[in-house]
Amino acid sequence: PREFASFVNKAAPQIATGNVNGKPMVALVCEVASKLLSPEIDDIAAFTVGELVTQLILKVADHIGQKGIQDLLIAVIRRLYTATYPTLEQSLLMVFARLVHQHGKKIIDFLGEAGEILVQNKKGAQGNLNVIHFISISGWSHTKTYKDCITSKSV
């Protein structure tokens, strides 16, 4: 994924306007990112996915659209919730650090508006996760404890 993030960084105009077999290249790259954000992918295999997501949002956001960006960020939060490998956790947190640094209030507002999202841990337990609290520094510093304290919800 690191090389893929570099590719997005260097070839953003081609990704934004290119097609592969009639499908927009930006959609294909977003599919790769979504697959790497899946909890079924081993943490070690996905450890640089945060860099890929960051480059997608910074370089081709206009071609992904607001809904696509929101979906990617929610997927990052859900993956962060299930991550156990510290390097993956750092990679995913850096998505928000970089976006807050560049877009400030817009990202903070998005996190606040996201409210609670449904998450599922690796044991299958589901519950609601308060996004802004989870991503905040105080929420992150207690991540492991916070993961065990979500509001249980059967679906």
Tell me about this structure.
With 155 residues, the chain is mainly alpha-helical. Helix content is 67%, strand content 10%. It has 9 helices and 5 strands; from the N terminus they run ααββααααββαααβ. The protein has helices spanning 2-10, 12-17, 25-36, 49-82, 86-103, 105-114, 131-135, 137-141, 143-147, and strands spanning 19-20, 23-24, 116-120, 126-130, 151-152. The strands form 2 sheets. A 3-stranded antiparallel beta sheet has the order 3-4-5. A hairpin with a 2-residue loop joins strand 1 (19-20) and strand 2 (23-24). Helix 3 (25-36) crosses helix 4 (49-82) and helix 5 crosses helix 6 (105-114). It starts with a helix and ends with a strand. Residues 151-155 have low confidence and may be disordered.
Short summary of the structure?
With 155 residues, the protein is mainly α. The chain has nine helices and five strands. Helix 3 packs across helix 4 and helix 5 packs across helix 6 (105-114).
Pick out the low-confidence regions.
151-155
N to C succession of SSEs: HHEEHHHHEEHHHE
- Look at the structure and give the mean pLDDT: 83
Strand adjacency order, main sheet: 3-4-5
Structural class: mainly alpha
Per the principal axes of the C-alpha atoms, what is the gross shape? globular
Q: How much β-strand is present in the residues?
A: 5-15%
Largest sheet: 3 strands, antiparallel
- The share of residues in helices is 55-70%
Care to count the β-strands? 5
Instruction: Compute the CA-based radius of gyration.
Output: 15 Å
Distance between the termini: 33 Å
Number of helices: 9
